[in-house]
């Protein structure tokens, strides 16, 4: 049996009447013909002044253009507007009442409109929450690596520091790439960025749940973040003991030390790591980060590629370094730096000694309060804070000028070679080669009369550094490998370095006459160097017997207190004059 049409119509009307959305039928000018109770309840707060006779009039304060939009809609039927959000504004909303309405408007035929009105308050709130969550996480994310950023770390630390001291089983690991600036300078910023992305991947990889049981037990929360240029922070929570955090740190450093493949280059770049342990931690997130950062700087100062646990004494050292930095700036401006010269003598095969073979320029600082400060106390700071360029340029220029001056005064008895120490940070500076050229021109020293000394750890670095060394050699400048025996490179890799001279470190030479082992090492170094066409200098000769040993081992040159301490220029001249007179 077919349903009675009248019944069906009644059912539909009931359904529309009770529907939980507002339905309004109007003519094209907005005159309301029919509306259900939900529509009147939603629109009533707006209709206080106008009554519910005309929909456009009711909505005019919220959607003033509605009548125009309808008039402009010329199709015979269809959707005029959909999902239009109408915020009711404070004036119209009681607490708990709808705050935003959603309006759909359809043209049913040439004479009628159907409006669907609903309460969109919750929907809008949800959207706003999602948006603000997204914004919040963007503000806490590093765009380059996709890692959380410093803000996220601080938030996590704030939470962890809330626990009582004894229950704090977390560690903060502060990581920094040892030579990021050089990579950026040598290969460009895009390569630097790629390196950072690779580093981030390796950090994530090293933290991934490992198989060993210790870590599984120890693993609580882990947060790995990039907090600055080449600085990463890892927060490890739920550690059983500090030793567990240290072994994670070791794993991180191992992972980061492997060579990186950046298109066109292989880059080797170790990292330094400072560790702050939760139970001993400072009280604010920023202080904890600062402490871990201080330990990282100490690790870097100790040669890099290693980890150190923060201890309070590091604070004082850091403060002292900050003092030195400030004072050093002043020292450069006020010309408190000066250069002393240590003779390097030639051990002639005939048993004689040539005292005018060379001198080494060594920088000193005449501090107004502390007296003469040795380079070991400030070169490292100068490298860290970017002052090494100014210090190095000063020494180079002063030494070359003095050297030329002596030629005029001493003639044939003047030194034939000027050795100047070079710091790794100088070699990384893009304009530095131009500075060397300028000094050569300005002072008139011949390139072959200048020897630049680099330390082993520096010379053994990646190809960018090697290229710079080759550039210097191309100018005709001599290169020496300083402090040989203390760093990483070995006799077997000596042939890879573009150096003319190997300076055997004092720590070997000082035992030349007492330790067979050291004698053998010196002898081997001399033989390998000779076979590569390199010359050798024994550093730190303090006694006649040391001098005899290195002479008998065919070392070409020697330097040390036995011959002379480093001297100010006038005293050096007197020293040379004396020796010259003796030889004559
Ligand atoms: P270095 O280049 O290996 O210089 C030799 C150091 O050994 C000098 O120390 C010198 O005074 C010291 N020395 C020489 N003979 C003896 C000896 O017989 N016994 C002992 N105990 N020591 C001896 P100094 O002048 O304190 O310099 C230390 C280091 O500081 C230098 O080692 C060099 O690496 C660095 N340095 C010095 N001047 C400069 C500079 O102008 N620029 C840079 N970048 N580094 C510099
Ligand atoms: Mg030297
Ligand atoms: Mg040396």
Description:
The chain is α/β, with parallel strands linked by helices and 584 residues long. It has 3 domains: 5-123, Beta-Lactamase (2-Layer Sandwich), CATH 3.30.450; 141-310, 2-Layer Sandwich (Alpha-Beta Plaits); 322-573, Alpha-Beta Barrel (TIM Barrel). The strands form 4 sheets. Strands 13-14-16-17-18-19-20-21 form an 8-stranded mixed barrel, surrounded by 5 helices. α6 (150-161) packs across α11 (285-301) and α14 runs parallel beside α16 (432-443). The longest helix has 23 residues, at 388-410. It is elongated and about 135 Å long. The model is unreliable at 211-219 (pLDDT under 50). The structure holds ligand C2E and magnesium ion (MG) (2 copies). Ligand C2E is lined by residues 342, 362-363, 374-376, 379, 392, 395, 421-423, 453, 482-483, 506, 539-542, 559-561, 566.
Short description:
With 584 residues, this protein is α/β, with parallel strands linked by helices. It has three domains: 5-123, Beta-Lactamase, CATH 3.30.450; 141-310, Reverse transcriptase/Diguanylate cyclase domain (Alpha-Beta Plaits, 2-Layer Sandwich); 322-573, EAL domain (TIM Barrel, Alpha-Beta Barrel), CATH 3.20.20.450. The protein has an eight-stranded mixed β-barrel, surrounded by five helices. It has a five-stranded antiparallel beta sheet with strand order 2-1-5-4-3.
The chain-level structural class is alpha/beta
How much helix is in the residues?
40-55%
Approximately what portion of the residues adopt beta-strand conformation? 15-25%
Q: What CATH architecture of the largest domain do you see?
A: Alpha-Beta Barrel
What best-fitting shape do the alpha-carbon axes yield?
elongated
